[in-house]
């Protein structure tokens, strides 16, 4: 399939996620404020189950899911696991378009990858492409050591929880990190083209 074909095929399966979290402010006046966050998710059943990253929804009071056609739903967290950074959400909807689940164990370095997500929390259904740059890459994400797929598809904040698809349009990974590591002197090394995804076999 062409990248255009894959994009048309998979975009209805990817959702934008917006979260609201009450954050206490430790001031003399007490009080709290609402901190909003954004991420992405992938529909895995036609009746509203959605997989995303645990760090996207962790601590959220309100979670809103927006489908590719703009319809919005309130989502509930069915389960989440911070170690694998996977969470499952549920929305009350039917007739959705679930992603076709691929096999991340059969991936080869150099294969085409297509990432679909909501970068910066405002650019929903953005499609970027690249290749599988490495497999079983040991990466530490928020204190957890993980074995991830490395891809050159452009990944930005807000892409987390979105889908990484292969050239057949099958879901092979859940995007969860990009390189933002610091050197031992504390300088940020924002390398481009270093994105990471949880292998779908691990996530499932």
What does this structure look like?
It is built from three helices and 14 strands. The longest helix is centred in the first third of the chain and has 8 residues, at 3-10. It has 204 residues and is mainly beta. The protein has helices at 3-10, 54-57, 200-203; strands spanning 14-24, 32-43, 49-52, 62-66, 72-74, 76-81, 86-90, 100-101, 112-117, 126-141, 144-151, 163-165, 170-178, 195-199. The relative contact order is 0.20.
Supply the key terms.
204 residues; mainly beta; 7-stranded antiparallel sheet; 6-stranded antiparallel beta barrel; 14 strands
How many strands, which pairing sense, and closed or not: the largest β-sheet? Answer: 7 strands, antiparallel
Give the total of beta strands.
Answer: 14
Helicity, as a percent range: under 10%
Order of strands across the main sheet: 5-4-1-2-3-7-6
Mean pLDDT: 89
What structural category characterises the helix and strand content?
A: mainly beta
Order of helices and strands: HEEEHEEEEEEEEEEEH
Gross morphology is globular
Distance between the termini: 25 Å
Q: What percentage of amino acids are in beta strands?
A: over 45%
Could you list the spans in which at least 5 consecutive residues all have pLDDT below 50? 182-188
- CA radius of gyration: 17 Å
In DSSP terms (H or I, runs of 4 or more residues), the helix count works out at 3
